[in-house]
Amino acid sequence: MQAEKMSSQEQTKLTLEQKAKVKLVNLVKAIEPVVQTHLSELESDELNYILENFSSFLTYDLKRDFEEQRTKNLKQSPFDDLLDN
Fold first, then answer.
1. 22 and 3 in contact (C-beta within 8 Å)?
2. What is the pTM of this model?
């Protein structure tokens, strides 16, 4: 399955697993160019220094971001908009 923009009709035919996988692939594809742009701006000595001194920090914790969003979603009720008025 290709990870590209799909019509809403095509998306309704997909299973939850398929929709989630497509969106995850799209997210990763959006992150990669940003990382590559910033890496290309590093000088060789900077790159080496970072690798030698900060390698344990060279991961991006997507799981943390997903969990934070899930928590936000759980705190939001479908009735929030009605009650705020």
1. yes
2. 0.62
